[in-house]
Amino acid sequence: MNSLERRSVAALAGVFSLRMFGLFMVLPMMALYASGLDGATPLMIGLALGVYGLTQAIFQIPFGMLSDRFGRKHLIVFGLVVFLVGSVVAALAQDALAVVVGRALQGSGAIAAVVLALVADLTRDQQRTKAMALMGMSIGASFLLALMAGPVLDQWVGMSGLFWMTALLAGLSIGVVIWIVPDAPITLREPGARATREFFFEVLKTPHLLRLDFGIFVLHMVLTALFVATPFALVDVLQLDRDAHWRVYVPVLLVSIILMAPLLIIGMRRHLTFLVFRIAIVALLVAFLLLFAGYDRSVWLVTGIGLFFVGFNLLEAMLPSLITRVAPGYAKGTATGVYNTFEFSGVFIGGAIGGVLHGAYGSSGVFLFCALASFAWLVVSFFGSSPQLRESLTLRLSPENSDDRSIERALSLLPGVDQVSFFSRDRIVYLRVNEEEFDRGALRDIEGLVDSAD
User: Fold this and answer.
1) Are residues 89 and 101 in contact, defined by beta-carbon separation less than 8 angstroms?
2) What is the per-residue DSSP string for 311-363?
3) How far, in Å, CA of 210 to CA of 116, rounded?
4) Cα torsion angle, 351, 353, 356, 361, sign
5) What residue spans of 123-206 are helical by DSSP H?
6) What strands, in cross-sheet order, belong to the sheet with 417-423?
7) pLDDT tens, position by position, 79-118
8) Which of the four, 58, 83, 124, 425, has the lowest number of CB atoms within 10 Å?
9) What is d(CA 70, CA 56) in angstroms, rounded to the nearest whole number?
10) Three-state SS for 420?
11) Burial class (CB in 10 A: 0-12, 13-18, 19+), 408
12) How far, in Å, CA of 17 to CA of 19, rounded?
């Protein structure tokens, strides 16, 4: 990466990570906090946890479309302002409804798709995969740090203080966007960089992508449902006050990261990717079965939580990579937009159903529901054949008139090229290639290509 790309990715990763940190810092204690407020019911507790997912799902695509018209930075700043207002509303809340409203406003600042689109705007084609990987790593790290730091900070500043900290982080992020993030060049953007109606139905008809979308829906549904039930179980079984829950979350998350890392490394081997993927789903299933059968026993409770986070961390790292490697290059923006919508819908459904089940059947009802959902995902993961994992390469055609058909024919004959997608109007061509067989140097011999190799 050049200096501009490094600055862009670092700044945007910081913005995204600070926002995620603030959003998830309250997750481990939210159910207990909301249960002590006026107007608290099982459903309201679940909504306090998951309603931000509903507003995220609703506003992801509109924010992305508006950013195409009004500019990325303007929409990111607007979204962060909405997020900041929601944090203040939640910090000042005196009843459960006000917390739900605050969380809904937090989710309404749906900037995820816009941030990723701006990363695409500010990086060259051959550096984009690396940039997205760095973004994913920073987001994952902030998520885990938030889950560990939240319970620790809660004992010092309380839940209201955490929401004020979230508002402060949003304010800092606004400053980063305005003064540090570069302006995107005003150019005709490539078809694959954003979600479009043209490719929407193609993505929805692709079984491999739908299975991954279903997976991220289930993963975040059971995560949110888990945090409806687990805080109460820690109080009832381990006799831990709310400000002592960090004694469980911090060591459990650290151990889960240590156990997950070797599996992630193994999963990077293409022929073992889906084996590791299914092992991670099995880990979720076993974790919830342990929690269902022995949630009233301290050893089983802690073991189940730890095993869940081994599977969760592994799947959270693998799924975004799989989406980008399975989706056709010209529809990656659409595929990731649909993926994000499924993800945040799962957050909302998990919070709502988890709250209702916990009110009716207690923690065991929530854990059984999560076990059944994990089993359904495991079954779905075996439907059809495993997709071939390929890399996408974006090539630009000379603006001058050239023989596009001969270029297309020459590209299709190169070793390792599985698919050639031509967009003559935009002067762009997408290649789907097997990196083990493909030689980028061969592109230099094809006339009519520009910026064709690293």
Assistant:
1) yes
2) HHHHHHHHHHHHHHHHS-GGGHHHHHHHHHHHHHHHHHHHHHHHHHHHHHHHH
3) 21
4) negative
5) 125-179, 197-204
6) 417-423, 428-433, 391-397, 449-450
7) 999 999 999 999 999 999 999 999 999 999 988 878 877 8
8) 425
9) 20
10) strand
11) middle
12) 5
Mean pLDDT calculated for residue range 247-276: 88
Spatial CA neighbour of 91 closest among 79, 77, 103:
103
Token pair listed for 359 = 């009110």
Phi/psi for 419 (5° steps) reads: -150, 140
Residues 119, 201: Cα–Cα separation, whole Å: 25
pLDDT at res. 204: 83
Query: Which residue, among 376, 352, 273, has the nearest Cα to 317 in the 3D structure?
Result: 273
The Cβ of residue 409 has, within 10 Å, a number of other Cβ atoms equal to 12
Burial status of residue 94 (CB atoms within 10 A of its CB: 0-12, 13-18, 19 or more): exposed
CATH topology of domain 203-388: Growth Hormone; Chain: A; (1.20.1250)
Domains 1-181 and 203-388 belong to one CATH topology: yes
Could you tell me which CATH number the domain at 391-450 has?
Answer: 3.30.70.100
d(CA 93, CA 240): 25
In tens, the pLDDT along 126-170 reads 666 677 767 877 887 888 888 888 888 988 899 999 999 999 999
Which pLDDT does position 454 carry in this prediction? 43
The amino acid at residue 413 is L
pLDDT digits (tens, 9 = 90+) for 213-233: 999 999 999 999 999 999 999
- Alpha-carbon distance 342 to 331, whole Å? 17
Does 452 have pLDDT greater than 60?
A: no
In the structure encoding, which two tokens stand for residue 273, read together? Answer: 């990717």
Mean pLDDT computed over 357-374: 96
pTM of the model: 0.86
Query: Domain boundaries in the chain?
Result: 1-181, 203-388, 391-450
Amino acid 142 reads S
Q: Which residue's structure tokens are 């700043």?
A: 77
Specify the CATH architecture of the domain 1-181.
Up-down Bundle (1.20)
Task: List the one residue out of 20, 303, 25 whose CA is nearest residue 152.
Answer: 25
